[in-house]
Hints:
The structure holds two protein chains of two kinds. Chain A is an all-alpha fold.
Amino acid sequence: MQTEWPVLTVLTFLPLAGVLFLLLIRGSEEVVRRNARQVALWVSGSTLMLALALLMNFDPDYLGYQFVDRGDWLVGEGIGYMMGVDGISMPFIVLSAFLTPLAILASWNSVQNRVREYMIAFLVLETLMIGTFAALDLVVFYLFFEAVLIPMFVIIGIWGGARRVYSAFKFFLYTLAGSVLMLVAILVMYNTAGTTNIPTLTAFGFDPKMQIWLFLAFFASFAVKMPMWPVHTWLPDAHVEAPTAGSMILAGVLLKMGGYGFLRFSLPIFPDASMQFAPLIFVLSIVAIIYTSLVALAQQDMKKLIAYSSVAHMGFVTVGIFTFNAQGIAGAMFQMISHGLISAALFFAVGVVYDRLHTRDIDAYGGVADAMPRYAVFFMIMMLGSVGLPGTTGFVGEFLVMAAAWQAHIIVAIFTTTGMILGATYMLWLYRRVVFGAAERDEIASLKPLSRREIAIFVPLTILVIWYGIFPGGIFTLMEVSIDSILNQLGTR
Amino acid sequence: MISAIVFLPLLGAIGAGIGAFLHRDRLAYAFSLSGVVLAMALGWWAFLTIAIPGQNITIHLARWFDVGLFQVDWALRYDALTAVMVIVVTSVSAMVHIYAVGYMAHDASKPRFMAYLGLFTFAMLMLVTADNLVQLFFGWEGVGVASYLLIGFWYHKASAHEAAMKAFIVNRVGDFGFALGIFALFHLTGSVQLDIIFAATPTLQNSQFVILGLSLPALEVAGILLFIGAMGKSAQLGLHTWLPDAMEGPTPVSALIHAATMVTAGVFMVCRLSPMLEYAPVTLGVITIIGALTAIFAATIAMTQFDIKRVIAYSTCSQLGYMFFAAGVSAYPAAMFHLTTHAFFKALLFLGAGSVIHAMSDEQDMRKMGGTWKKIPFTYAMMWVGSLALAGVPFFAGYYSKDMVLETAWGAHSALGNLAWYLGIGAAFLTAFYSWRLLMLTFHGTPRAPAKVMAKIHESPPVMTLPLFVLAVGAVLSGWLFYDLFVGHHWHDFWGDALFIHPLNSVMEDAHHVPKWGKLMPLFVSIGGIGLAIIIYGKCPWIADKIANTFPAIYQLFYHKWYFDELYDKAFVRPAVRCGQFFWLRGDRGVIDAYGPDGISNIVVRFAAFCSRLQSGYVFHYAFAMLIGVLALIAWYLVRG
């Protein structure tokens, strides 16, 4: 399905155009600062509007890619610029466009130095995220996928905490190491199939023996991104050091690129290998769920705790994807979207108190509820969403994945479901130690209540988490056809 | 109308929540009281006009899940079973709401309290009206959260939020089983819809699940998993540890959630699933055993506790055991009957205890009470009514329902049924004993409270005594009123298809043909228990200490609640935290990072250092290296020839 004008390209590069505006700002430092924030917010806001318009016009019943737009690039070599969306990528594009303005709003006051450069990094990041999800050519995808590292590396490395350089490098090298293998696989695929066009490759049908190697190469990259156990150790460090907004985007969108990769490449293009490796993935995911949940229990740093919980939640996603049934994949998709909203909100919740007390040490808090009642409510809702309370989005995805896991293997289901107990344990403990209790110290008792700006960030996230927890149908219809076509490709439908 | 019953309390809760943020107490009261009282009126109206004539209604509200076979609706199912639960929940809830206005009058955040109560009532109603397992789970976890919020209501107190967290997590262990049970049934029947599951059950008797090479009957696996859920919510042996701690919450909460409604959700669930459980005999056996053991186990603890609320909490635990073993011998109507009467008299006891605590300036320790009955005669009378009903003294509610439960255990004519009967009789004796121990310690004897407290003792205001009176009426009349309807010879006319007993099972009929001495046994032991307690605690208090000192081991065992908390702490809580520490420091840092990224970067650094050492800058070093190279090359050519 082609469109009259290249709407996806426009959407992708709109934030980049905003960067030009940012570069044009002149004046005193204070003026630049103020204007840079405004421009970034407006640009990302317009991007969100455009993404929503795209969503309105998206036809969920259409089989294949929509809003496709092609361009000549490396003509005649089988490598071309091609963009398009289906039910798998559409939700992620909207998620990216939705979280970026919130992230910019979240750093309104907390970032004071090099504001212009900071905003540029975020807008570039937005372009690259949307591009990753919209690309329909492997080479284009690879470029976006890899380039995402650069602004994130900069965000952590410049605006991060004390150990930012170590974390930034760890993040960069981990992810790069995974991707190198993927690059090799892409070259092999290009040599075999003569093209890097994703729809063509999906229909190509690689030799099952070759699939194994290609699968493993892609797996290396996606497993790091996800992150799966045992290549997850970059995540806690990166989150701890990243500024609040960086964490929001990192947890909200960047982690989903791994899951997206599995659904876009691994399952449809290497179906035989995927089936073969499913047991391995189950084992790794179960270890991730139990191991990282226990590790989360031992954390003293609020951000680290939530970062570890992310690894556990992503464990549900990989279990769901590799059950190869409709509930599992739909559940995994839903879990990713839900985690995008909830973890962004949780990291923001940490940021809110960090801005006030400048510590992430859990023991430094306790009794926050008295001074910040509204904060306690929002934090509570997101905490309950994270533990998968029915009526929030956290439940929908997790429950479907676990139900699907029983269909695939009973033992997998049993171990996966223990995540329900462990998840409740560390989140409730965190909440209890931070929010409940008597405010014994003056600095806690005199905490400033939530500002309007902070409420404006929490409210949309909260509404979505509850609304789609009660009526998730809108998201399911969006991806139903695309999930069916993945299942067809796998032959398990 | 059914929708209105369910959603009115939610509206009340939202109104109260808004009131809490605007600091408008009256607004909050107006919303939450009118919501729940209207719901109660409609609940009774629906009971009389829909349930009694034997109608069933299902209302589909919206689609929830729609993923392949996994189809779930938001729907309200109203049949006889739901109808009974609705009147129990709305009535007790309405009384507790009114009572709370007085009880919480001095608390700064009462609108928040009212909002939580409304939220709880809504979740409980969603639970009982569920027409599929997932919505049941929604209500199930919803009441769990409401209970969490209410136990931890006084969040300044460390013990309160600790208890709240414990309640949620222990319940989550139960929910783990519940969720797996849902998945098992979904796998078997391709649906989570109750009607479809029930229709498919008779054909599934030979289905098997293979777990770790073991082939297990599928229905039993699903049944036991679901029962684990019920054990968590209803605080049955093993998963009961949260309930006594939950007494940290304000007393109206204990009455509503931890006596009358939420904790009975497990019994409700077992009854709701009767069409399936009837084909899972092993599961029913497990339910009988656990129920009977809990009945006696909790009663032994209740005998030794001194916190007035904890005594009643363990009593609740024990009474829930009765309901479970009734359900376990397939006497679901008897279980529901006891659930209904228990809701009234146990809520009465809790609210009465609340009235005592209120009068005694928030003192809960019975050792610091005594000699108060003349100062609070109304509360005293209400506590008597509640205790008489609990002990099963004739013509009070508990007399009808508890005897019915015991008779069905007898009528089951099975080894497990007999076991349940004997343990039930033992528990009945203990029940009567601890109830009168409570009465004697609290109201009689010499005053043990400081004179300042004694001087301030006063009867509670009408807003608190009125609900007590209403509940007392229920505690007196509900047994007599509902006996024929619920468990009489024509029980099937009322329950219809809501409760299913296998056609070959005649337990409900046999229960009416218990020999005379079997029928009178519960009454004898109750009177014995009452008498003994009056003698010991009324006349010669030294006997109690004497007994405790003669059998210190047993006394300590009961007093320390059979050491369950200590055991769980050692077996689960500490190891989990230690595992977490170990995985983090030894796993993540010690192995993955040390050999992964940090290890590799160390190697690179060392290799680079080594390489840079080669570039020493001394010409003779380089010349020497060249010389070696040239020699090596020549040697190689020579060797190769």
